[in-house]
Amino acid sequence: ARIRTARTGTADRSKMLRRASLRASLFWRDFSRGRRSLASLSSGSQLVYDLDSKVNEACAKYAEKRQTGVSLKTLLDTGRGDLLGKARGFLEPEVAQAHTATEQVLIQVAMFLHHELPIRLARRVVDLQRIQLLRDMDSVRLVHRWYAQSFEELLNCPAPNTAEKEEAFANVLQNIYQRHAATLLTMARGAYELRQELGRKGGRARIAFEDHRDIHNFLDSFYMSRIGIRVLIGQYIALREPPVDNYVGLVNTATSPAQVAQAAVEDASYMCERQYGEGASPFWSVWVATMGVMPRCRSGSA
C-alpha cells in the first residue's frame, strides 16, 4: 500500500536551515578577514571522546567497504512505500506480515541506514586521520571524535528489524544528527586554526594555506559527503513525522521555481540587512542582463 509521509513546519524549517547556512558563510568570511576570534565559534564541546584500538580497527574495516549511492528518486519511492518487498536483505517476509505499511517503510529505511551509515562515517574517520596538517588542529580533532563516536554508537545499535528496535534506532540517529549540526562551523574553525599557524613566523610549512590543494580537495570531498549523510538521516527522521501535502520526507514533489527564486531574494535581503542594517537590500540590476540570465536558469533546470 502506498503511504503519504512528510514533515511539519516545512516553510519555517526550510528558512531556518537556509539562514543557518548563510550565517556559516558569513562567519567564515569574517574569520578569513580577521574580524572574528576563535572563541566566537566555540561549540562548548570538549575533546573527551577517546578512540581505542577496536574502534580504529572497525573503522579501517568498514572504510574499505563500498558505499551505496542513493538517488532522489530512490528517496521518493522508498518514502512512498513503492519499494516494499523489493529491497533484498533489508525487509524480511515476517516483518511485512507483522507491521503496518508505515512501519514497514520505516523499518526498511532504518535497516538500510543501519547498514550504510557505518560505512560512510568510517570513511570520514579515516580521511580525518590521514589529512596532513589539518588533522592536528583541535577543532578537526573534535570533529574526528564526533564521527568516531557516531560510528561506534551505530555499531552497538541492534538491527532495527521490529517497530520497537526501529524507534530506538531513530533516537540514536536523532542524537547523531544533532551532534553533527556544528560540523560545518567547527571544520571552518579548524581551517582557520591552520591558516593562523601557517602564517606564524617559524610555522611548520612555508606553503600558504591557499596553495594547499590537497587540503582544499579534502574539504570539498568532506563537505559533499556530509551533505549526503545528513540528507539520508534527515529524510528518515522526516518520514517519522506527520504528513504534509506535496512532501515525502524532505522531498518536495511540487517544487515551485518561483518560490525558490523568492527564497533566494529573501536570503540575499537577510544577508544585506545583517551586514549593513535594516532597509539596506534594494534589488538593483541591469534589466537586459537579467532578462538574459533568467531564461538560462530555466533551461538549465529542465
TrEMBL record:
Keywords from the UniProt entry: ATP-binding, Kinase, Mitochondrion, Nucleotide-binding, Transferase
Entry keyword annotation includes Transferase: yes
Any Pfam family the entry gives: BCDHK_Adom3
Catalytic activity: L-seryl-[pyruvate dehydrogenase E1 alpha subunit] + ATP = O-phospho-L-seryl-[pyruvate dehydrogenase E1 alpha subunit] + ADP + H(+)
Localization: Mitochondrion matrix
Domain of life of the source: Eukaryota
PANTHER family named in the record: [PYRUVATE DEHYDROGENASE (ACETYL-TRANSFERRING)] KINASE, MITOCHONDRIAL, PYRUVATE DEHYDROGENASE KINASE
Protein name, entry field: Protein-serine/threonine kinase
Annotated source species: Pinguiococcus pyrenoidosus
